[in-house]
Structures are given as C-alpha cells and as structure tokens.
Write a structure and sequence with these properties.
alpha/beta; 5-stranded mixed β-sheet; 4 helices; 33% strand; globular
Length: 115
C-alpha cells in the first residue's frame, strides 16, 4: 500500500488528508508536505487520518515534528482519527496528551476556534 496525500483550506485551517500507510518508506513525503505548508504560513493544521491503515514510529515522529513546527508559530496540529488500532498507538505512546484527536475535521476546527 502506498501513501496518498492531499490538502485543502477550510476556515483558515489547512486540512491534510492522508490515506494508506505511514511508515519508514512513506513518512518522508508527509514530512515534506507538513514542512512546506508551515513554510507557506499555514500554522493551523488538521491531519485527517481516517483512511490510514498503518502507522509506525517513523510516522509518529513526523507528526510530532510537525506539531513542534506549528507550535513555534503559536499554531496547532490536530488529528482526525476514529480507528481503534491507530488510536491505540497514540494511547500506548502517551501522545493522546500531546495531540488533539477528534472524530471529524469539523469538530477539530470548532474546538480550535473555541479556545
């Protein structure tokens, strides 16, 4: 399985749609996209992981790196994820305390705006 990446803007938030496997081979493409978006002034990101089938430690590292980048600009990086097997990875690593994890893109955007 390959990695498909797409992104679009909604309510001054850049939505990154990820589909497939985020692993040691594909994670660099996600890293490049996140860096590019931040370099272009997008500091509020939502990564939609609804169609992610696999996530390894390299993928986690890319997400944490993206979070550090946006936080350097007082930004946010939230995740949309409802798949139990992917959520379990965030629970085990303690990253549920670091990332906002939501059921939908709309919920993630609304939470950020209400802060």
């Amino acid at each position: 399985m390959d990695l498909k990446l797409d992104h679009y803007s909604e309510d001054d938030t850049e939505i990154v749609v990820v589909e497939g496997e985020i692993d040691v081979y594909t994670a660099p493409r996600l890293r490049e996209l996140l860096i590019d978006l931040v370099n272009k002034g997008n500091f509020h990101l939502v990564v939609n992981m609804e169609k992610v089938e696999f996530l390894d430690s390299t993928g986690l590292g890319v997400l944490v790196g993206g979070l550090k980048r946006v936080r350097a600009h007082d930004g946010t990086l939230d995740l949309v994820c409802t798949q139990e097997r992917i959520l379990k990875i965030f629970r085990i690593t303690g990253l549920t305390k670091v990332f906002g994890i939501y059921d939908s893109v709309q919920e993630a955007i609304e939470k950020r705006k209400s802060k």
